[in-house]
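Illustration 12: L-fucose kinase.
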Amino acid sequence: KIMPACDWTALVVTCKTKDYADAIQAQLEMRQKLGELSKDLMILCIEDPQEGLGSGGATLNALLVVTELLSAKNNYTVVTSDVLKGAKILILHFGRYFPYNPLGRGFVSLALNPEVGESDCLMTNFDALFKTVSTNLAHNSPPGLWVCSSDMLISFPHNYAINWDSVNINDGAVCISVPSTKQYASYHGVYKIGADNKVEDLIFRGDDAQISACTLNSTDDLVPLTTGIVFFSTFATERLLTTHNTPPLDACTYMGIDSGMDPLCLSLFFDILLPLATDVNEKEFIKGQRSGAFGQEDKKPLGKDKQLMRNARSVLWKHLRDLPLTAVHIDVGSHCYLDMSEPPSKYCDVLLNQCPEISGFKPSKQVHSYVHSNSVIGDKVLLINSIIDSGVTVGSNTTIIHSHITENMIIGKNCYLCGIDKQSSFVVPNSNIPSNSSIIGTYVNLPTTARVFVSMHSQGKLLSDNDNVEDVTINSMGEIISTQSNVIKPEVEHAKLLPFSYRNVLAKAKLVPMLHSNQAVNISDSMVLLKKHISKTEYEKWLSSVRCSFCEVLENVNHMKEFKYGMNMYFDVACKKVSEILMQNHDISLLPFFKMFTVNGEHGRVLELLDQIAIDSKRPDISARAFACIADVLGFMAGAKGGLRSGPASNKQWKQPLHYLEEGRIEEGVRALANIRKSWINHPDQLTRAARHYEGAEQILIRHAVMSVSSFVKLVPSVQAQSNTWYIAECPARIDLSGGWTDTPPVCYEHGGAVVNAAILLDGKRPIGARIRKLDTPVVLLTLLGQDDSSTQIIECTSKEQFLDYYQPQAPAALLKACFILAKIIDLESDVSLENHLKDEFGGGFELQTWSMLPRGSGLGTSSILAGAVMSVLYRAAGYSADADAIIHSVLLVEQMLTTGGGWQDQVGGCIGGVKIGRSEKILPLRVTVEMLVLTDEQAEKFNKHLKLVYTGKTRLARNLLQNVLRNWYARRTEILDICKGLKENAEDCAVAFNEGSIERVGKCVEAYWKQKKMMATGCEPEVCARMMEALRPYCYGQSLCGAGGGGFMYVLMKEEHPNDFIRDILKNIKGAQDAVVYNVEIDRLGMHLQYLMHTTTHNWYAGPTHVTTT
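Figure caption equivalent — predicted structure in token form:
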């Protein structure tokens, strides 16, 4: 269950440089287009106006900027705090660089996959923090300002949320804490929480006594850890904002910097929150005894800068001291600091074992990655956004992120690989990366943009504080460098150290080769640091290269290019996965991929891939799905401006490519479609129209797949029809009791189908029928009988051209024409005229009459059952006999010829009597099997007494319902997959209920079935039908609209025996139900009734048959 989230007014991200801010802005705007962030959310990514502002200064500057923009948005001409009233603002600080991810700790990719399906965007620490704060913490919070650091992973149970009604804010601030061991807290900070959850003190890197004094419970050693997450009420936010124009705090904002002031460094915790703690006194705070580095005293001599800081703290004390600071301690939370000083191996362990708990996601060792089937992956290997090609071996405890590992490479144990591109992977020496190696690739701007690689030992601590670089070298990379006969060690000893926030560390040594005067520099030149023995040539090239330190790399990352590299890697993986999922026809939705391709302007790439899959698959079912996917991509490109997806698909420009597909010339058809597509992608409405034509192409290939049923149409030669004898087939209607929609192609052969239905008589009659007789004249006479002469339609066909519109469902007698063609009475491919063909083959023509006593759109399966009746008499007239199995599969062929895309349950229900369950397997060729269910005379009588059939008076429009269902099926939406699974299971339960003779249990299955149908086809329940059902619900075990829903008939399985007038009395007072009609209904245990009539008189079939001889 997805938790509700805070409705933010603005999201502000603070960064050290404009390049970084611009790159993150692009990433967040992409998430906004994807729908991950609200379209109404104001997103601001801003650089700190000057280096060294600290978290407090960055917060104050960000608050000023967002307030200024909100003021302008609300048409104010000056900055006003009035815009903060009712606003919910989140500030995320993206502070220091992070050695193991060039994009910083905020965009560390996490080992989390969606619980279902694929992800349209990798889950990063930013996404996790945003979701966590939005759902677990800020949902239902008062308006105000939230401030959050990005240097940690924080987690709460996904169903946890703060109960803000129990938090006593008192117009102050709230800090969030989680439990921690004392040892862990000694490296960070803890709150000392007193009565009423008020914060008495903040202790950073305290000694054991200080930390022990903060324990909440004497029975354990856990203490409330500072999490880097703080909330300021609107009042407190306004109070904080007022300091921005008070010297010297104005030096923290861009206004002060632009006024020529030197920057002032403020800490969010040591300078802004500390004066709110009740046990902190004014003197020690202002003097800085608690506000130096990590909350310790600043022991520098009093100078200009130190006096300036005292003045700043004095202002903060004056403005903020009376604000209460309340702690919300969440004892089910956890915190993991992304420590820069830890070795890569520790970082790998964090990614693998300490990912935050996010609603809708689950931990995974393989996140958006593709692994070739014959590669060997060791134990505890983590893959994120990576490709592992054929023949690769990866050792245990290795982490690979944003990398393409090429064929036959061997990667040792305990490695960390990040950002190894395909080209670099090809030149890895001997296609071998030794165990305990860490390699990090990134784009840098030194002096020009280039991709460089940093190599080190997985246990090496690049950034731990040491006084001597040589000590760090020997201690952290001992056996690697010291065994090189001091070849590289002297270079480290005399490395030029750069100004950095750390002291002498290995990361400052110029070890990373970037450029060379006359040779190309690549990953292999960096990997010399991983070798136990290097050649003189390798050393000389390394020594003569232009080198930089790891610190310089981190300071000069080209963030925009690095984000683009990661996205390109995402698309490479996505293409592999799209191809695999489609070629193997997995039930996995590809919509997240298509959305991502489209939002990032990479639609051309995925469209070309889908074209190729449609060609290469050599299977109509897979090619059809590929066309449906192309339609989805075009739909994403069109967006809301493109209009509705359903619509006509017979534009003349598209006629030839679709004709290629009809003829089975798939490659020609695909390429011709693609050529037309190129000129139809310039406007949203054209894109939608193009999508409709691809859905038309999809329907053609569905027809090809369904045509595989022809192998199950077994005909036995018989005597041709005699003159002046009517061959008659009368059929019951059907009601579907469970499992409907799973009989519809392509669901029935891609998922498998199971449907329980019953043949029924209406007012004692079989309402659907057909009869045929032979004529001396070589013509085909088609008569659609109505209730009187005015509603009867007669079509005389004297040429084959009159049958060419058989595939147009709205053409006169199209169904009958399709049946004649399928029965091979009409041969459109022959050059022989209709007249000569009928004379030569049959000695004359035919008159076919059909009828239905059911209203149009009844939902009782009329068209398919009628097709079954027609095929039965046509086969007989043509000199063949066909059993029920042949008729069921013949009707499937007719439906595909008509392009109506019907399933198989209607003809099963109407051509075979009684109650039965039809099934089809998840395979081509498609075959339908039928199992008769137990229905004794006693059971039938009881069922008939409890069954009521009501015509709702609402005409059903099923075609759009079908189009939407097929679109959702091909998209493999999770909810559709779940519903289809439930439909099949419910059908099997219903079959068991019938066999047990339990009407109540059948009713429960019917009730469940109706709920499933409503989820399967949104909009299938008109309001008047819903009101009718609600009125009948107390009196029935179950009820459902028949067929696809949307109107037509509904059936009700009553708890007690009631006359029809009982139903009428209930419905007569319902608005809109005045046209409802209640029918007498009973189970028809015979099914299709075949007979012949030995005279030539015209007969009104609505009045019932006269003299009939049954065959």
